[in-house]
């Protein structure tokens, strides 16, 4: 039974990974400071802590067969609040880890490192980070090059993670679905920007494959490349009373990129299986059954929450 440490395992991505690895009978330990959460109630080992604490690096990390490194400030807006803090949490901590930990690291990066580019991009394409977030992830990728690591550049996530962790409402599919339900309209700025989308549950599947694999290096992960307007149209089919309001005003997020997934498919035998319709239906069920009290709560949006509760970090 492999011993797995999931650093940041109480979050949106971590929640579904924990569930899958427990189901697969791994020996799971979660390390998290519960930045967005008030409790952790899953039936696995749990260590409350901050990755900036020196005690973490003095612990017996090499007792774990693999470390899944999720802990980070995530998103362009969240990371722009305090770039120095972003560097400290997203990069400096990983720098400390690789000096101590000598086994398998599964690292989560982002397709945002590609920035705005034409063509369909693979792992050898030029990078063009347009934010502190993307830059911090790219720096991490570089220092992991010579280690026993696998790096996943994730597309734009969507969908519901697990039954405990918060849902993120600052992701395009989730945001537009909520607006279609509550406001009966979806505002789309431009709309021709491409995003490679990926259900959060597929991230967990890829990570479980990575734990069993000996492959190293960088892999793009996504379901498909879609324009923002195409995403809005797909959501509109599930929320019949909603309308799309399209404006030519240039959206502040300049990212526009498409990616290839051939490498993950060939080398890891990974294919995303949760499609866009599945994710929209999950969200619609939560919304129509009023299973979340307040979707506008800042805790569901990284940037809004960190602006309000800076003292927590």
Oligomeric state of the chains present here? single chain
According to CATH, what is the class? Alpha Beta
Order of helices and strands: EHEEHEHHEEHEEHEEHEEHEEHHH
Q: Assign the structural class, choosing from mainly alpha, mainly beta, alpha/beta, alpha+beta, or little secondary structure.
A: alpha/beta
Between the first and last Cα atoms, what is the distance in angstroms?
A: 34 Å
The total tally of domains equals 1
β-strand amount: 15-25%
In terms of per-residue confidence, which ranges show pLDDT below 50 for 5 or more consecutive residues?
none
CATH architecture: 3-Layer(aba) Sandwich
- For this structure, what is the CATH homologous superfamily? NAD(P)-binding Rossmann-like Domain
Question: If you compute it from the alpha carbons, what radius of gyration comes out, rounded to the nearest whole angstrom?
Answer: 19 Å
Your description of this structure?
The chain has 313 residues and is an alpha/beta fold. It has one domain (3-312): Rossmann fold (3-Layer(aba) Sandwich), CATH 3.40.50. The protein contains eleven helices and 14 strands. The strands form four sheets. A seven-stranded parallel sheet has the order 3-2-1-4-5-7-11, with helices on both faces. Strands 8-10-12 form a three-stranded mixed sheet. Strands 6-14 form a two-stranded parallel sheet. The longest helix has 18 residues, at 83-100. The radius of gyration is 19 Å and the shape is globular. The model has no long low-confidence stretch (mean pLDDT 94).
